[in-house]
Design goal:
Radius of gyration: 13 Å
Distance between the termini: 44 Å
Number of domains: 1
Order of helices and strands: EEH
Number of strands: 2
Mean pLDDT: 77
Shape: elongated
Length: 50
Amino acid sequence: MASDYSVYYFVSPVLILYGFIKKSQKTPLRELQTALTRYRQWKANNPFDK
């Protein structure tokens, strides 16, 4: 079984939020929620992005 890697990031500067090994074509909702939660946490604590 082949696996793909997915990495979620935002450019401003490059911010790597989360990476995981994809085992199907559809990205699991839990993985998307983890990346979004980490982005929100970063944005709330980043003094340069306000």
